[in-house]
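Proteins fold reproducibly. Take a sample protein:
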Amino acid sequence: MRKLLPALMAAALVLLPAMAQAETRHDEQLWINLTVMGPVSGDLVYFGELQPRFGDGVSRTETAIMRGAIGWRFSPAVTLYQGYAHVVQPVDGGRDVNEERSFQQISWNIGKPWGGELSSRTRLEQRWRSDGRDMGWRAREMLRYEKPLKPGVQGPSALIYSELFVALNDTDWGARGGFDQIRNFVGLEIPVKGATTIEAGYLNQWIDQGAGRSRMNHAAAISLWVRH
């Protein structure tokens, strides 16, 4: 496991220059995320999040996501969730594209290598969109690592993560089975109060749009995690 995160990050660094050689459209964006999470009763837990994303040079709302889930904590390290998300993609001069998602998620705190914390999030999504009739299946895998800048002191931590998306089937609304996108983040996790934190940094999103075309989003990403 200790070799898994560096291998994934190295693969991302190797892949990104090659990806950039394709016909790639770039955009500057701002992603904001508010997540509230905590126990419901005993080992029954929940999370809810609101995530607006601003694109086209941060000039308009590109995507808005409302997502929530109920989970069961099997151990301090492993939690299984069932969730639902409503996604809106505004269309200038047209009807918004709406997407509904059901998802299953396993969150796993792997361990504390190199003086930090390594965790995994595995998510399987079932997707329906208003511009088609098919259901799309997509798998997502995130590896996340955070390490305090000053060991033994409550303060900011360096934070990196990488998330790979793979579509599992073709749909009539445009999904194509295979590699979908990859996201890589580098930034800081800053404690606020209790277990509540702010995460801020740079997120690079590379999306395969097929036919030799791709999109690369350069996003300033800010997240508030309210844990209780």
